[in-house]
């Protein structure tokens, strides 16, 4: 079912030192060892023929920042039936401010361009981006006026998205980040995967498991 290029990419994940004894596949994953199954499935936005992968993150989290390289490379290998959803975590304070920043960037059409830059600014340049003024100034480098940025950050739709992310995070019973949730049912964390680098490989095998479940 995999394309040749995708198969090569999966092999490269193993060779890159992911630390698994064998290449993770849909058949050899063990619940409680490589992943956790959520007590109740969480509703997804994927179509009937799609598998949703939700990446839950916080821009201020160093582990989320360190995961970006491997998870972004993995996203580029995914087939068209996989829908990737980025969901900022909401635990109050700066977490919620950064969640609003994410959805405001989405509202303004700059999220894809700015996503990696948010991480870089916080972890490499020491910016906190934890108030309206600093975020508005940051947005201005994407041909967005500070006034437009302020309006987006305070928009009802953005606040509604933050509230929705909070509800989904509670439904997933997440206590930390980063996390990958496959098909609204399977949870992969650094702890369950054994390392940050292992997370994409475990999630990839879970995507294939969902495909198999749907054809059985």
What's the helix and strand layout?
Layout: H1 4-15, E1 36-37, E2 51-57, H2 62-75, E3 82-88, H3 94-107, H4 111-124, H5 132-139, H6 146-153, H7 156-171, E4 179-182, E5 186-188, H8 190-193, H9 199-215
Task: Describe what this molecule looks like in 3D.
- With 216 residues, this protein is of the alpha+beta class.
- It has a domain at 60-71 and 84-184 and 200-216: Glutaredoxin (3-Layer(aba) Sandwich).
- It contains 9 helices and 5 strands; from the N terminus they run αββαβαααααββαα.
- The longest helix has 17 residues, at 199-215.
- It is elongated.
- The two termini are 15 Å apart.
- The model is unreliable at 1-19 (pLDDT under 50).
Short description:
By secondary structure, the protein is of the alpha+beta class.
From the structure above, extract its key features.
216 residues, alpha+beta, Glutaredoxin, 5 strands, disordered N terminus
Q: Estimate percent helicity.
A: 40-55%
> How is the largest sheet built, in terms of strand order?
1-5-4-2-3
Report the biggest beta sheet as strand number plus sense, adding barrel if it closes: 5 strands, mixed
Shape: elongated
CATH class of the domain at 60-71 and 84-184 and 200-216: Alpha Beta
Strand content: 5-15%
How many helices in DSSP terms? 9
CATH topology of the domain at 60-71 and 84-184 and 200-216: Glutaredoxin
User: Whole-number radius of gyration?
Assistant: 18 Å
Please provide the count of β strands.
Answer: 5
Overall structural class, as computed from helix and strand content, comes to alpha+beta
């Amino acid at each position: 079912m995999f394309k040749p290029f995708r198969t090569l990419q999966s092999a490269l994940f193993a060779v890159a030192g992911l630390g698994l004894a064998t290449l993770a596949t849909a058949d050899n994953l063990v619940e409680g060892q490589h992943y956790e199954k959520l007590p109740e499935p969480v509703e997804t936005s994927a179509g009937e023929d799609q598998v949703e992968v939700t990446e839950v993150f916080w821009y201020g989290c160093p582990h989320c920042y360190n995961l970006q390289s491997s998870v972004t490379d993995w996203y580029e290998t995914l087939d068209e039936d996989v829908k990737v959803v980025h969901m900022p975590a909401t635990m109050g304070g700066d977490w919620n401010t950064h969640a609003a920043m994410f959805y405001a960037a989405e509202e303004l059409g700059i999220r894809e361009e700015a996503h990696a830059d948010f991480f870089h600014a916080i972890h490499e340049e020491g910016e906190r981006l934890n108030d309206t003024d600093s975020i508005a100034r940051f947005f201005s480098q994407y041909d967005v006026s500070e006034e437009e940025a302020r309006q987006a950050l305070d928009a009802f739709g953005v606040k509604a998205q933050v509230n929705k992310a909070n509800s989904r995070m509670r439904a997933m019973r997440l206590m930390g980040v980063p996390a990958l949730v496959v098909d609204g049912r399977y949870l992969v964390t650094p702890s369950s995967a054994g390392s940050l680098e292992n997370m994409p490989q475990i999630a990839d095998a879970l995507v294939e498991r969902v495909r198999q479940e749907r054809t059985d």
